[in-house]
Specification:
This protein is about 45% helix and about 10% strand. By secondary structure, the chain is α+β, with helices and mostly antiparallel strands.
Length: about 160
């Protein structure tokens, strides 16, 4: 693995104008800028919601509305965690869904309590929300950002939430 790692480094990349960006710092800065451009800006203003227009269509009956706001049960949470495919890669914390499935007897109660706390308070452990983005080459020797496929690795508890 150590022998293959240097071959995976990207020392140079071409920008949209064909100009070469060279060096780890320049390539990293350019790639971050490229993918931020794909994701869009944070300062976009959202339109106000027209609540009257939303109320004019079909509506849920009271029982249906109450069902939607019921707290998640331990069973709901366990089913959500168990539904995550075991073949998924581990999150940034190194734990895969397979780990949680295999050790549910030991960790299940704490995981359920943490997820229920999130839905009660709206707060979660900062580490659960961390995601690792990995760029995997689509071709043998990539030269442009479009020749990479981004993968995101999220924590299993975050997926459960």
């Amino acid at each position: 693995m150590k022998q293959r790692k240097p071959h995976s480094y990207v020392y140079t990349i071409k920008d949209e104008n064909g100009n070469r960006q060279e060096g780890f710092a320049e390539v990293a800065k350019f790639m971050a800028h490229y993918y931020q451009g794909l994701l869009g800006r944070n300062d976009i203003q959202r339109e106000e919601i027209n609540w009257k227009a939303m109320r004019s269509g079909p509506q849920l009956i009271v029982e249906q509305q109450l069902k939607l706001i019921e707290p998640f049960t331990k069973r709901d949470i366990k089913e959500a965690i168990l539904a995550i495919p075991s073949i998924k890669s581990p999150g940034p914390d190194g734990f895969s869904s397979n780990f949680f499935k295999a050790s549910w007897q030991e960790v299940g109660t704490k995981i359920c309590a943490a997820i229920q706390e999130f839905f009660t308070t709206g707060r979660m452990c900062k580490q659960w929300n961390s995601t690792r983005l990995i760029l995997t080459p689509k071709v043998q020797s990539p030269t442009t950002p479009t020749e990479f496929r981004p993968f995101s690795y999220c924590n299993v508890v975050y997926k459960g939430i």
